[in-house]
Amino acid sequence: MVLAVQCPNAKCRKFMLVEDHDRNKVVSCLLCKTAIKVGGGGSPSGPPKSGVRPIPKK
Known about the structure:
The chain is mainly β. It has one domain. The protein is built from no helices and five strands. The protein has strands at residues 2-6, 15-19, 26-28, 35-37, 52-55. The strands form two sheets. It has a three-stranded antiparallel sheet with strand order 2-1-5, with no helix packed on it. Strands 3-4 form a two-stranded antiparallel ribbon. The protein starts with a strand and ends with a strand. Residues 43-49 have low confidence and may be disordered.
């Protein structure tokens, strides 16, 4: 599954797509290089973690 994460830097706020294997890892924003903690996902019925949105497969 692919996840969309948003940069926490208030001056950037860029959205990026990351792979499922990046869950619970820290990635760098492609634009400003701010460290972004990729959420671990939660229960499927619960809301997504802040800044992480699953992208459904088509």
